[in-house]
Amino acid sequence: MDQERTHWIELPAHRSSVGVARRSVGSRLRSWSLPGELRSDAVLLLSELATNAVCHTLSARILCGIGLVTEGVLRLEVHDHDRSRRRLRRCRAALDDEGGRGLFLVEELADTWGVDRSRLTGGNAVWANLTA
């Protein structure tokens, strides 16, 4: 991907890093003049992916990235350093649960999403694509 059409940020795997990633990505998306609804969905998805990496992997750092793959297609990625090869589990949250809806939101909002082995970190690379 073209560097002017991508943005990466590496952060410690702490809960406070999710807000930093959200603000950083939101700012970059605004600078690319993308539609407001696309920006909102992208920030929410990245937040969910980053939260999962922070809370559910054995990783000290996370790498968050966004990129305009083609005109109108935005790709979001979160890479962790967890080399345990544990599979991501989709939880079914009860009505009064405070968590457990992250991958459900990703599944509902993203056009496509998936998990690969990260060539950048050796851990998981969870990605989602959104179309404008």
Please report the total strand number as a whole number: 5
Envelope shape: globular
Strands ordered across the widest β-sheet: 1-2-3-5-4
- Tally of contiguous helical segments: 3
Write down the secondary-structure element order. EHHEEHEE
What do the pLDDT scores average to?
A: 87
Q: Round the Cα radius of gyration to an integer and report it.
A: 14 Å
Characterization of the model:
This protein is α+β, with helices and mostly antiparallel strands and 132 residues long. It is 35% helix and 30% strand. The protein has three helices and five strands. It has helices spanning 15-31, 36-56, 102-109, and strands at residues 6-12, 61-70, 73-80, 112-117, 124-131.
TL;DR of this structure?
The chain is built from 3 helices and 5 strands; from the N terminus they run βααββαββ. It is α+β, with helices and mostly antiparallel strands.
List keywords for this structure.
alpha+beta, globular, 132 residues, 35% helix
Give the helices and strands, then pairings:
Elements: E1 6-12, H1 15-31, H2 36-56, E2 61-70, E3 73-80, H3 102-109, E4 112-117, E5 124-131
Antiparallel strand pairs: 1-2, 2-3, 3-5, 4-5
Helix pairs in contact: 1-2, 2-3
